[in-house]
Amino acid sequence: MELEQLGRAILLMGLSLLVLGLLLIVIGRSSIAFGRLPGDIRIEGNNFTCFAPITSMILISVILTIVLNIVARLLNR
After folding, report:
1. What are phi and psi of 75, to 5 degrees?
2. What's the pTM value of the predicted model, to 2 decimals?
């Protein structure tokens, strides 16, 4: 791998992290209730808590699938 290709790869990863960070900030400030959607399971006991955000995981998976398909189609032009 040439240094130019390595530089582009590092730059792309950095930009991806920047976009992901901004997206997380926006989601955190919005009223989207990830982790508190219907279908997210939370079991609490005296000294025990079990949390399984099933609905949130499915929703995030669908969103990421759509976004990655769009990006893949744009890159394969």
Report:
1. -80, -25
2. 0.59
